[in-house]
């Protein structure tokens, strides 16, 4: 397999960044405070890349990214909490089987609905819900039965190895659960215009926050402790894990956008009417983009849950839902490079330097300073820091074009006599 120059530079640069930061952590040059900020920045980059895919590249103004972020955080935290604190894998098996069979239900419903012409979104949603809930309940029962054997298998392994395996699977499952919920939620909502869609997604974030406030009573998850906050979550998210998921996310988003599928996604943003005239299924590309972006939000939330070992519903209120939106706009809509730089700048400045530089007792003034910086930037450079720019590896390459040979003159070139004057 042959890699081009930009790919090699990107890979070497990523490995170098990881190695340098890891060495600084290992030798204690970076203290836990700055290490936590770097991990948080990487998590914010993942969730913001998902939002940039939805808003920056597909043109759908969404404020629901934080809700799917919260779903991913609590879903993964519940799985690892049950295994580490209760020595039970029922959270893992139940979530795995529910996610698996719910996906099967969505696929079967899609095959059935595709044969019905003129079915409105709300009727389709009802069919999807029936299939998802029915098979999801079957998955719940199977997961309960499978919990015993899986627990025995994991307990027989070295504790650290088993914990890492449970953590990795829980992160992926958190993303899948967030994606499934986003599909069901987005099916009727994506028919709305961009502004109304934004309001609807903001309402979704508020609903999720209220449900988390009552998760111990209304939802029955006593270990989440509702509005008191969930404690006892193992702190597994290391620099290795967040950096690995970030690099994989960047590569996946880059490859998606540089494919013919990605060009269709961007065409919806540019002109929906023209895209529809070219035969592009507008509704399909909107929902798929929304699901992929929510999947990344779920993964980011799962990683965040295992940084500090504590979750509180107030961390997922609607005010915080503007953070990834600010990062995307600050870095530049439709710029992966801008989102990466803005995510780390947001964490380092807001949670790092301003906390240390502001006088004692004035730490909350950082929420005044950084909006002022954002306002100045928007006045001077409204397209964002990297609006319209990508590093070479992330640039949108046009399809390969064969070189066209110049047309040769008809007949032998030397047959025509020279014209003399």
Computed CA radius of gyration, to the nearest angstrom: 25 Å
Biggest β-sheet description: none
Q: Can you tell me the overall shape?
A: globular
Which percent band covers the strand fraction?
Answer: under 5%
Helix content: 55-70%
Q: Flag low-confidence runs.
A: 399-404, 416-421
How many helices? The count is 14
The averaged pLDDT comes out at: 87
Q: In angstroms, what separates the terminal alpha carbons? A: 61 Å
Q: Structural class of the secondary elements?
A: mainly alpha
SSE succession: HHHHHHHHHHHHHH
- Per DSSP E runs of 2 or more residues, the count of β-strands stands at 0
Task: Give your account of this protein's structure.
- With 421 residues, this protein is mostly helical.
- The chain has a domain at 57-320.
- Helices cover 69% and strands 0% of the residues.
- It has helices spanning 5-26, 32-57, 65-86, 90-113, 121-155, 159-189, 194-213, 239-257, 260-270, 272-277, 282-308, 322-331, 336-357, 366-380.
- Helix 1 (5-26) runs antiparallel to helix 8.
- It is globular and about 55 Å long.
Give descriptors for this structure.
single chain, 421 residues, mainly alpha, 14 helices, globular
How are the secondary structure elements laid out?
Blueprint: H1 5-26, H2 32-57, H3 65-86, H4 90-113, H5 121-155, H6 159-189, H7 194-213, H8 239-257, H9 260-270, H10 272-277, H11 282-308, H12 322-331, H13 336-357, H14 366-380
Helix pairs in contact: 1-8, 2-8, 2-11, 2-12, 2-13, 3-4, 3-6, 3-7, 3-11, 4-5, 4-6, 5-6, 6-11, 12-13, 13-14
């Amino acid at each position: 397999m042959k890699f081009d120059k930009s790919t090699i530079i990107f890979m070497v640069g990523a490995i170098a960044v990881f190695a340098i930061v890891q060495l600084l952590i290992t030798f204690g040059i970076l203290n836990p405070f700055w290490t936590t900020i770097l991990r948080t920045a990487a998590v914010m980059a993942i969730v913001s890349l998902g939002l940039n895919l939805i808003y920056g590249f597909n043109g759908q103004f969404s404020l629901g990214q934080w809700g799917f972020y919260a779903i991913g955080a609590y879903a993964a935290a519940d799985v690892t909490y049950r295994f580490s604190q209760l020595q039970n894998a029922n959270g893992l098996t139940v979530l795995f089987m529910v996610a698996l069979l719910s996906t099967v239900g969505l696929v079967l419903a899609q095959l059935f609905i595709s044969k019905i012409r003129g079915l409105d979104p709300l009727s389709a949603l009802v069919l999807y819900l029936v299939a998802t809930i029915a098979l999801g309940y079957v998955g719940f029962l199977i997961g309960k039965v499978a919990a015993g054997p899986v627990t025995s298998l994991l307990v027989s392994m070295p504790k650290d190895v088993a914990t890492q395996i449970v953590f990795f699977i829980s992160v992926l499952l958190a993303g899948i659960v967030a994606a499934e919920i986003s599909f069901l939620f987005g099916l009727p909502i994506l028919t709305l215009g961009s502004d109304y869609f934004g309001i609807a997604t903001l309402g979704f974030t508020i609903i999720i926050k209220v449900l988390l406030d009552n998760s111990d009573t209304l939802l029955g998850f006593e270990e989440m402790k509702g509005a008191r906050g969930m404690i006892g979550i193992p702190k597994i998210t290391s620099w290795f894990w967040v950096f690995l998921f970030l690099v994989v996310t960047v590569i996946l988003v880059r490859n998606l956008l540089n494919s013919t599928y990605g060009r269709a996604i961007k065409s919806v943003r540019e002109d929906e009417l023209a895209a529809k005239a070219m035969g592009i299924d507008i509704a399909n590309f909107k929902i798929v983009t929304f699901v992929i972006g929510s999947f990344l939000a779920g993964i980011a939330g799962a990683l965040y849950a295992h940084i500090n070992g504590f979750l509180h519903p107030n961390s997922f209120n609607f005010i915080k839902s503007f953070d990834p939106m600010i990062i995307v706009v600050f870095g530049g809509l439709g710029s992966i490079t801008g989102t990466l730089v803005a995510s780390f700048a947001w964490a380092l400045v807001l949670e790092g330097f301003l906390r240390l530089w502001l006088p004692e007792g004035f730490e909350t003034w950082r929420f005044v300073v950084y909006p002022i910086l954002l306002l100045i930037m928007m006045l001077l450079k409204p397209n964002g820091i990297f609006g319209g720019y990508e590093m070479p590896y992330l640039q949108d390459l046009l399809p390969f074009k064969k070189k066209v040979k110049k047309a040769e003159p008809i007949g032998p070139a030397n047959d025509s006599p020279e014209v003399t004057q």
